[in-house]
């Protein structure tokens, strides 16, 4: 049975930005039973607006009879700092003021989040992570953790992600934040500040999560005489409204900033030197139609981690393929976990 709990860190938590939090909370779930030698831990780092209930958004991989089965594994997933699903974020009460943080919430990086996760790991008395898995921003966090604590992780699964946020990714995120900032309510200190702007931001994001082929297939018009009210337009509106019902603009703004600062090479010489520190047996997975995290990003990661395997998921869904192509992902993961990796099999980059 999947169980949700809250871990509280009571001391001041120094952040990479020089700012701090006066303590924090992490909402997390566990699923399955920790075995006697604590060697069956699977730790999941979630994507941007996901939550700690991994079966909600990666149910094709996690659950009874799936590649990550709670009958065999002890599965842990913590909601990231800055989010709004139980962990400390901009809508949380600042214990120093008794009021929500809102615009005063400090700047976070993936390194801050990983340090918070590590405190939770110590609280759970987990000495090693058998499989650390994450996709998209969760993949960024998983990789940062494997670099900063190389002895901790036995196997790393890095999905549709990168070692350093690209100018392309930053540009998409900044465009989304600009949409939020254009909302006249954004300056207010209310839970729903910037919400209409976030709807537009989500519509912008979808253009990077999918691609030309995906929209052409799913939103194509059957009525050749139509001059307004197109399916693709309604779809963008729907997705914005859908996110607004479950998320807030403050968390969205801060989490995209967190992605932008991702760089495993910061203060470590270079990205290549940082990746060389990873000791985990690593599986790097890319999606061939991903325009947000293209295959060149995963090839770089696989090339510079000493014991790595690179695999490609074929999909028409773009970046979202990492959440949808369960059959391919399960086959790739089962091969890797059964210790049949095809080492150093990235596709050569053509210049």
CATH architecture of the largest domain: 3-Layer(aba) Sandwich
C-alpha geometry = globular
Number of domains: 2
CATH class group of the largest domain: Alpha Beta
Spatial order of the strands in the main sheet?
1-4-6-5-9-10-11-12
Protein name: Homoserine O-acetyltransferase
GO cellular component, one term: cytoplasm
Binding site for substrate: 202, 320
Family: Belongs to the AB hydrolase superfamily. MetX family.
Notes on the protein architecture:
The protein has 351 residues and is α/β, with parallel strands linked by helices. It has two domains: 3-165 and 264-337, Rossmann fold; 168-260, Rna Polymerase Sigma Factor, Chain: A (Orthogonal Bundle). The chain is 35% helix and 17% strand. The protein is built from twelve helices and twelve strands. The strands form three sheets. It has an eight-stranded mixed beta sheet with strand order 1-4-6-5-9-10-11-12, with helices on both faces. The longest helix has 15 residues, at 167-181. The chain is globular, with a radius of gyration of 20 Å. It starts with a strand and ends in a 14-residue tail after the last helix. Residues 340-351 have low confidence and may be disordered.
Secondary structure: elements and pairs:
Layout (H helix, E strand, L loop, with lengths): L2 E7 L3 E2 L5 E2 L2 E8 L9 E5 L8 H4 L16 E5 L14 E2 L4 E2 L9 H14 L5 E7 L1 H12 L4 E7 L7 H15 L13 H15 L2 H7 L12 H14 L4 H12 L10 H5 L5 E7 L7 H10 L3 E6 L7 H4 L1 H12 L14
Parallel strand pairs: 5-6, 5-9, 9-10, 10-11, 11-12
Antiparallel strand pairs: 1-4, 2-3, 4-6, 7-8
């Amino acid at each position: 049975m999947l169980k949700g709990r809250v871990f509280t860190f009571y001391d001041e938590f120094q952040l990479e930005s020089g700012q701090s939090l006066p303590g924090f909370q992490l909402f997390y779930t566990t699923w399955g039973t920790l075995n006697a030698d604590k060697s069956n831990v699977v730790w999941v780092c979630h994507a941007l607006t996901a939550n700690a209930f991994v079966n909600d958004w990666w149910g094709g991989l996690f659950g009874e009879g799936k590649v990550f089965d709670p009958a065999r594994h002890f599965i842990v997933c913590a909601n990231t700092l800055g989010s709004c699903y139980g962990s400390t974020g901009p809508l949380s009460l600042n214990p120093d003021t008794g009021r929500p943080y809102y615009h005063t919430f400090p700047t976070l990086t993936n390194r801050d989040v990983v340090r918070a996760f590590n405190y939770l790991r110590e609280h759970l008395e987990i000495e090693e992570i058998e499989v650390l898995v994450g996709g998209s921003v969760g993949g960024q966090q998983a990789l940062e953790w494997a670099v900063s604590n190389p002895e901790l992780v036995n196997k790393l699964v890095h999905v549709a992600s990168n070692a350093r946020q690209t100018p392309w990714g930053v540009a998409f995120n900044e465009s989304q934040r600009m949409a939020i900032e254009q909302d006249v309510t954004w300056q207010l200190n209310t839970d729903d500040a910037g919400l209409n702007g976030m709807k537009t931001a989500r519509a912008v994001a979808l253009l990077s999560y999918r691609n030309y082929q995906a929209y052409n297939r799913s939103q194509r018009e059957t009525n050749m005489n139509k001059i307004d009210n197109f399916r693709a337009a309604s779809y963008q509106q729907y997705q914005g409204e859908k996110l607004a019902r479950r998320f807030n603009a403050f968390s969205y703004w801060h989490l995209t900033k967190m992605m932008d600062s991702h760089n495993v090479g910061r203060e470590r010489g270079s990205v290549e030197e940082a990746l060389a520190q990873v000791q985990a047996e690593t599986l790097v997975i890319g999606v061939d139609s991903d325009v947000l995290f293209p295959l060149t990003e995963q090839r770089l990661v696989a090339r510079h981690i000493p014991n790595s395997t690179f695999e490609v998921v074929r999909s028409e869904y773009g970046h979202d393929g990492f959440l949808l192509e369960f059959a391919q992902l399960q086959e790739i993961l089962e091969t890797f976990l059964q210790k049949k990796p095809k080492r150093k099999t990235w596709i050569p980059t053509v210049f």
